[in-house]
Amino acid sequence: MAILGSLLQSTINFGETIRKRISPTHDSVQQEEVLTKLILKAKHTAFGRQYDFDRILRLTHVGELNLYDQFKEKVPIHDYNKIYNEWWKYGLLGYKNICWPGRIKYYALSSGTSEASTKYIPLTKDMFNAIRKASIRQIFSLSNFKLEPKLFESGILMLGGCTELNQSTSYYEGDLSGIQASKLPFWFQLFYKPGKKIASNKDWDKKLTEITRNAKNWDIGIIVGVPAWIQILMEKIIAYYNVETIHDIWPNLKIYVHGGVSFEPYRKGFEKLLSEPLLYIETYLASEGFIAFQKYPNQIGMSLVLDNGIFYEFVPFDESNFTSDGTIKESAETKLLGEVSLGVEYALLITTCTGAWRYLLGDVVKFVSTNEIIITGRTKQFISLCGEHLSIDNMNRAIMQVSNHFNITISEFTVVGVPYDSLFAHHWYIGTDDVVSIDLLKEALDAALMELNDDYAVERSAALKEILIDVIPTSYFYEWMESLGKSGGQHKVPRVLKNKNWESWKSFLGSKGIH
Questions:
Q1: What is the DSSP letter of 248?
Q2: Most buried in the list 144, 236, 244, 322, measured by CB within 10 Å?
Q3: How far apart are CA 16 and CA 35, in angstroms?
Q4: Residue 113: per-residue pLDDT
């Protein structure tokens, strides 16, 4: 019997039971407490003085005004460019007490998927503690999945960014996954793979090669990482050892923890690499904080983390609040958690213990229950050339339908809106290494999109005159990402191409003889 595994499982079960007993507070109360703590802690910062946090707290204390109403009235909405140019850039120069007490010593580098420029996301000691706390809660939630004790003795492979951080004059920078891995508690080192030495390798290809060479020496039960790169790694391991599936190397592999992008386009490719099903657990961990995670098997959405250093606002993602290119308007309407409606798309605003204030995260979510969400897209990654309002969620679902229909694996795709005659078209680039008729694929994809999106169906008989399709090798997407310096780690292929990304993609395809 796996004694250590049984002890760990008992601890996890006990921890989750205690957590449920001591946290019965209503969602709205939890969120109000979070906002109060954030404003209180930051009231003496430059940002807090600018927006008179002390007065907000004083008037709330005597009962004259509602805390959130004052906060919303005084503090403007920020996208990354606004908060960076007005506030965060001074932290990079070494100034302290800008948006959060103290000096920012760590920055997560996040290029996102909309443009090529690098974003510097501040990370504070409070946020490290918040992420650690949420991670422990997620571990406790494993008690809901009825797992075998021996799983808790297996290794956990975390495929992330380099743990060897870049040092500047006054701060360290790197991928969030790499920064996290460099700060893992000592007890976790017993389970963590690939280990500090391999994880510190800055060359992504060499890192994958080292993991592959060591794979047979490890008993991996859980893998964590972005779907595309996990799939590439498993294919590499299978080929290196000349075996049929990844379970020939890791027979105890049971769980895959994923996040960042929809897993559905990768599911078929994953299943070809397995000899038995995996338990898929979705996590919403952004560079800006730990937002949500899946608590139960077969749960449709992810449960928001409500009492852990992040305050949420929700902006209906529609024309009244956003411009045609996905830029939020100054007059945007915001809603609190208790005011949202099921099935409506909302852009996420967060205020956090890193000094992000009413910050547009860039993700679009939809509520499937009281505090459970699914990610449906990005504010800058949708297509609405003529009112078709095509979201990433629509695209993912349509791609899944056609891949199942033709029994092919489509791991990557991207789409761009282009002029066509005097009107418009969508140009799709679909990555598959299987044989498929482009004409039949085009017909099936168009039909699936019309079924999923009424606005798209209307515009296909009006201004959206055509859809164009190029089927290309899956590897082209990763080669392009590598050419941008975005291979590995947390980098994802953008589902919608605009501006610089579109120009870069066209140039890359031209080098491959595709015009």
A1: G
A2: 322
A3: 25
A4: 47
Tokens of 429: 């680039």
Give the residue ranges of DSSP H helices in 62-104. Answer: 67-74, 80-83, 89-92
Buried b (16+ CB within 10 A) or exposed e, 117-146: eebbbbbbebbbebbeebbebbebbbbeee
Residue 389 tokens read as 């309002």
**What phi, psi does 19 have (nearest 5°)?**
-60, -40
pLDDT in tens, 142-188: 888 888 887 878 899 998 877 777 888 888 888 877 777 766 666 66
Other CB atoms within a 10 A radius of the CB of residue 450 amount to 17
Check if the beta carbon of residue 205 is closer than 8 Å to that of residue 481: no
The single-letter DSSP state of residue 399 is H
Classify strands 220-224 and 255-258 as parallel, antiparallel or unpaired. parallel
CA distance readout (Å), 269 to 231, 248, 249: 8, 17, 18
Tens digit of each residue's pLDDT (9 = 90 or more) over 439-473: 999 999 999 999 999 889 988 988 899 999 999 99
Give the distance, in angstroms, between the CA of residue 118 and the centroid of all CA atoms in the same chain.
16
Nearest to residue 328, comparing CAs of 336, 317, 337, 312?
317
Cα distances from 375 to residues 121, 239, 283, 346, 454, in angstroms, run 21, 34, 11, 10, 20
DSSP assignment of 166-198 equals EE-SS-EEE-HHHHHHHT--GGGGGTEES-HHH
- CA-to-CA dists, residue 498 to 97, 256, 427, 488, angstroms: 36, 32, 12, 22
Residues 6+ apart with CB under 8 A from 303: 292, 293, 294, 295, 371, 372
